[in-house]
């Protein structure tokens, strides 16, 4: 498959002149907002509880490893 630029050498894209901003900050595109589902099912609750449990276990493991090294770490949970 050929590249676009190599198809027609006589027809090239013209360079666009950027808009004059006059000191304005360029607009940043933001990601999609997280929308909570209207219906919360039992599976969602189970998944949330499971992920909380796994995170808690990981924090405990990291704290024990840090204590073995002689460094004390404090985990703040929201």
UniProtKB/TrEMBL annotation:
<dbReference type="Pfam" id="PF09495">
    <property type="entry name" value="DUF2462"/>
</dbReference>
<dbReference type="InterPro" id="IPR019034">
    <property type="entry name" value="UPF0390"/>
</dbReference>
<feature type="compositionally biased region" description="Basic residues">
    <location>
        <begin position="10"/>
        <end position="36"/>
    </location>
</feature>
<protein>
    <submittedName>
        <fullName>Uncharacterized protein</fullName>
    </submittedName>
</protein>
<feature type="region of interest" description="Disordered">
    <location>
        <begin position="1"/>
        <end position="40"/>
    </location>
</feature>
